[in-house]
Backbone:
């Protein structure tokens, strides 16, 4: 704007000088440097913004700032140079480029997979995969896109591992199966610079018919265990009774003490009627005393004929 004003003033002076020819010859040499200065100032006003814009473009293309969990894989003319970061990273514009890599643990939700177990049971299984990049160079150079590649590998490995086990193992040994899947995926992704830290099998969905069959199987299993426990209890009780009988038979006085203890317990309950079994062992000495006269008569030629009575040990003599 300033140069235009100066040029307008110079033109006004020139017109005045034309009207006065004598003074025009002295003004024209004075106007030449003013006009050149005005043309330079106009071109400078157009060049300066373009130069500033170009400078900002160069700075934006050469300066990168990386966070603590990020790394930059730098390529120079398409060839790998090195891994830089974190912090300020300077690049040569138009010659170098970089790829950002996140080193934090990433979570992939494995979609529901249709799995057939070794005992031909169909089910739906889904899982969660945890991994992180430990080598940015391999993660960018060895595989095209490491995130979808890891996801697809996890899906196929999950189906393959679970298909080698039966349904009972899937339901009872879920942690073991998760560890097997994790080790297989980690061994294959090691060449990609990826570390698989954990795999968790989340849900195992069965059909309604299979759920009812499993419920019946569980009920039958509980009944079987109940019967086995009852039989074992009977066996242990009978074995204990046999041992107690052996001890009591070895010491006759122990049996009498046991009967006396039983009488004491019955009497403490204040019952009006007491039914007490009388074992043969208690009356055996009395029976022996009764049998002694019969044996003596038999030696004198008498024949002993048993009476038709309920009393044991009583005999009738019959003389011949």
Residues:
């Amino acid at each position: 704007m300033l140069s235009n004003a100066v040029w307008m003033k110079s033109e006004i002076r020139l017109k005045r000088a034309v009207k006065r020819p004598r003074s025009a010859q002295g003004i024209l040499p004075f106007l030449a440097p003013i006009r050149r200065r005005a043309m330079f100032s106009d071109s400078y006003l157009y060049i300066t913004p373009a130069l500033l814009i170009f400078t900002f473009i160069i700075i934006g293309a050469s300066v990168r700032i990386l966070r603590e969990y990020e790394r930059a894989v730098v390529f120079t003319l398409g060839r790998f140079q090195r891994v830089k970061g974190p912090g300020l990273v300077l690049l040569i514009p138009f010659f170098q480029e970089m790829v950002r890599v996140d080193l934090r643990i990433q979570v992939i939700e494995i979609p529901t997979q249709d799995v057939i177990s070794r005992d031909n049971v169909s089910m739906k299984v889904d899982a969660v995969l945890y991994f992180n990049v430990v080598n940015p160079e391999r993660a960018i150079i060895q595989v095209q896109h490491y995130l979808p590649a890891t996801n697809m590998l996890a899906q196929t490995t999950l189906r393959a591992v679970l298909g080698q086990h039966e349904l009972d193992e899937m339901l009872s040994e879920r942690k073991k199966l998760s560890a097997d899947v994790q080790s297989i995926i980690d061994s294959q992704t090691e060449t990609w610079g990826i570390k698989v830290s954990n795999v968790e099998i989340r849900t195992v969905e069965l059909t309604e018919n299979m759920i009812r069959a499993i419920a019946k199987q569980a009920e039958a299993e509980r009944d079987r265990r109940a019967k086995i426990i009852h039989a074992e209890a009977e066996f242990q009780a009978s074995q204990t009774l046999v041992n107690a009988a052996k001890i009591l038979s070895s010491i006759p006085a122990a049996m009498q003490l046991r009967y006396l203890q039983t009488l004491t317990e019955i009497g403490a309950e204040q019952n009006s009627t007491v039914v007490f079994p009388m074992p043969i062992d208690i009356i055996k000495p009395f029976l022996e005393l009764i049998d002694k006269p019969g044996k003596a008569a038999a030696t004198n030629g008498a024949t002993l004929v048993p009476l038709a009575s309920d009393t044991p040990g009583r005999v009738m003599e019959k003389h011949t």
Notes: Confidence is low (pLDDT under 50) at residues 20-25, 302-320. Strands lie at 63-66, 70-76, 79-84, 87-90, 96-102, 106-116, 122-133, 194-205, 303-306, 315-318. The longest strand covers residues 122-133.
